[in-house]
Amino acid sequence: MQTAADAGDAATLLAAVPAGRRVALVDPRFVGHVHALRLGLTDPRFAAATVPGALTAQPEARGALLRALRRTTAAVGAGAPVVARDTDPAPEDRTVPGRIAVALEAEGTAVKRPELGSLTATVPTDAGARATAESARAGVDDEAVRLRSAVKAHDGFFTTFAISPYSRYIARWCARRGLTPNQVTTASLITALIAAGAAATGTRGGYVAAGILLLVSFVLDCTDGQLARYSLQYSTMGAWLDATFDRAKEYAYYAGLAIGAVRGGDDVWVLALGAMVLQACRHVVDFSFNEANHDAIANTSPTAALSDKLDSVGWTVWARRMIVLPIGERWAMIAVLTALTTPRIVFYALLIGCSLAACYTTAGRLLRSLTRRASRTDRAAQALADLADSGPLAQGVAAVAPGLRGAFTAPAVALLGTLVMIGAALFLPYGSWLIVAAAAVYVLLSGLAVARPLKGVLDWLVPPFFRAAEYVTILVLAARSDVPHAVPAAFGLVSAVAYHHYDTVYRIRGGTGAPPQWLVRTIGGHEGRTALVAVLAAVLTHAAGFTTALTALAVAVALVVLVESIRFWVSSSAPAVHDEGELA
After folding, report:
1. Which residue blocks in 372-432 are alpha helix, DSSP H?
2. What is the DSSP string of 402-469?
3. Quick check: 94 pLDDT over 90?
């Protein structure tokens, strides 16, 4: 920390700081909470940020900061005090840091202004204002606000009332001992894998231990995000771990339950894969709908207005959050049922609960879409195209096919293709080449569905239909094959593909776009993988080679996807995707 005599001296001192370091300017008259400065000056996600009386810049914004500071110095004089003027747009812009923040924004550099809530951050200009600011600062418990802000807003009922009241203190304990969110995330994964191993024993003691460990894993899963928000330790690696480990934990636990059930004489692999497919399809409905409406123009809907009104009635908020069976409620249900019942009952409960949740959320999204007057943007259309995961076969069809017109054409064609593919897998003789012919029809219809930009009212349904077609086809063909271990191999294949789809979602959320096209082409796209599995089922009818082929395909997809994903998420271009905590 160095003290500058005036704005000119500050420019000289800042220029001397090594280029790779973050710098900050704080008005010496600043009065406020330490956590207000922490929010404004230490969050690594933003190139530049400010609170009243303070400003920070990451290395990429250093040049713009120095230029803005020199312009400010020229405007007010290198040694002249900063004087409030009636023409200043806001009191916080009357200080040197405030003026620089305005200058940065005028130049085109985004400056983050974090919400402070009840925290104090001000630059008093006289003794009376200073006394008022100091009184306001003394009236708010800085640490209590920091703890409260560490808890993510809009969490589920179980997480809010059964986990967060104490997990925030675990987060603070970890912060004071120098533990990082990534370490806690890894501990959560390890705990969940141990829980899966306990479930795989197939014993009552193992099931009880698995249920307890799964809840412990979830507590740690909440703690890592709270630790990140409490200590502002956001990172690209943390974003990747947080985005992928939840799915890895849940799928590993499903596999552990299935293995344990087999040891007890009950084969539930089909139920385990069905639960995974349903959960993944639920998520892609949410992702597609949100991306389609992320930046929609004139985004209004009577259904959304009704939802907003219901939000003012407290019990309806919690009821609707519980109906969708979020991760907290879902894991609590899984843990309790694992300890007290059997894996078959666990999966029945999951399938019923997730089906009801999927019907509720999808119906709401359909109503909002049909009653909403909105114009989708090119960005939204591109996001939906990326989520569709069309491979070279569908892209080839789309390139030569005339785009089908009509507000509901794309989802109707995608739905038709899905019904043709799943229906063939379910009802045609297993191993029949007619299933391969149905796969060819599915490829054709998949290409037609994406031949035009996905800007229609219900075009967000296209990616979910494709996910259902691919995942359910793999599930049905593996289940009907009567080949030993075919369904576990299919479980591995769907897991690898689902990871690719989740990875795509989080890249889009971070604003960096979908995975590279070479990756999508290499792993075939949804239609290519679906057709390949249909061909394998026809060629290797009731043969053990079908399991080997599914396993090899799963390993190949997993290797390609994981290598590229790891390369991206540890690179400098990866986004720090984190949910924000509740405002103080």
Report:
1. 378-388, 392-400, 409-427
2. PPPPSTTHHHHHHHHHHHHHHHHHHHSPTT-HHHHHHHHHHHHHHHHHTSS-S-STTGGGHHHHHHHH
3. no
- The continuous run of DSSP H or E covering 327 comes out as helix 327-340
pLDDT of residue 202: 96
pLDDT at 81 over 50: no
- Return phi, psi of residue 437, to 5°: -65, -40
**Contact, 397 vs 418, CB < 8 A?**
no
Mean pLDDT value across the chain: 89
Q: Which residues of 424-440 are buried (b: 16+ CB within 10 A; e: fewer)?
A: bbeebebbeeebbebbe
Whether the Cβ atoms of residue 310 and residue 320 lie closer than 8 Å to each other:
yes
- 83-97, 152-166, 466-480, 504-518, range with the lowest pLDDT: 83-97
The sign of the dihedral angle between the CA atoms of 465, 470, 471, 476 is positive
| Contact criterion met (CB below 8 Å) for 140 and 118 | yes
Mean pLDDT to the nearest integer, 67-73: 81
pLDDT of residue 513: 86
Alpha helices in 108-235, H assignment, sequence order:
127-138, 142-150, 157-158, 164-176, 181-199, 204-231
Q: State the pLDDT at residue 238.
A: 80
- How does pLDDT run across 416-431, given as a tens digit for each residue? 999 999 999 999 999 9
Report the alpha-carbon distance of residue 268 to residue 257 in Å, rounded. Answer: 8
Percent of the chain with pLDDT over 90: 68
Rounded distance, CA 270 to CA 428, Å?
Answer: 19
Question: Residue 322: phi, psi to the nearest 5?
Answer: -75, -35
Scan for tokens 């703890």, then name that residue: 147
- pTM, whole model, 2 decimals? 0.88
- At residue 441's C-alpha, the angle toward residues 438 and 444, to 5°, is 155
- Pick from 7-21, 111-125, 171-185, 260-274: least confident: 7-21
CA distance 96 to 19: 22
C-beta of residue 488 within 8 angstroms of C-beta of residue 479: no
Q: Which of 318, 325, 332 has its CA nearest to residue 218? A: 332
Q: What's CA 187's distance to the chain center, in Å?
A: 20
Please give the C-alpha separations between residue 174 and each of 304, 323, 407, 546, in angstroms, as whole numbers.
40, 33, 53, 48
Residue matched to tokens 């494709």: 466
Between helix 302-311 and helix 314-323 the angle, nearest 10°, is 120
Residues 424, 434 contacting (CB under 8 angstroms)? yes
Q: Are 292 and 374 in contact (CB under 8 A)?
A: no
Residues 6+ apart with CB under 8 A from 210: 195, 196, 198, 199, 253, 256, 257, 335, 338, 339
